[in-house]
Amino acid sequence: MLEKRKSDVYCNMSAVFNTLKNLPKADEYIDKALAIAERQQNNAAFAFYIQQKADNYFENGLVEKALRTRQQYLPQMEQGILPKTFLQGAYQNIAQDYLGLGKLDSSKLFAEKSLATATNLRIADGVAASNWLLGRIALKENQFTLAETYLEKSRHYLLESENPTDKRDYFDVMRQLMFAEG
User: Which mean pLDDT values do the consecutive 10-residue runs of the chain (182 residues) have?
Assistant: First the structure.
């Protein structure tokens, strides 16, 4: 039990260093967490921690590496190794990775999976984030009416959020939409 707690702390420290854009330190801590999970043969913890490692890659501009890392463990997640809430987040992150790589069809596929999972599980922030991402995809495809529909579905949650980044992201995409529509 102590080892599991220690690995969770390492994962959290990795997330902190990720936020600080210190990938070497973030990787150092997530690798420690992964080593403990592997030693303990804790597949669920390993699958969870590997998503943090992928987040480290993404946040530091290594989008393809993040995507490959997420996809490597997606089948285990789809088989239920972790609660479905984590699967929804993985779908969302994969959709974001594909969007970052300009692969809109794949991004849309995973954003739709994320939305369906979030809707089935009644995860309000997941529904809002999926709709927001689908709005961004539609915007990239010059489907402005569809983009506006998706963004409208995310509006209430994002504007009521206490996280100022949510509001900023919403208004940024709305500005892009208004600019694109002329």
Answer: 92 94 93 95 90 93 95 89 90 97 98 97 95 97 96 93 90 92 84
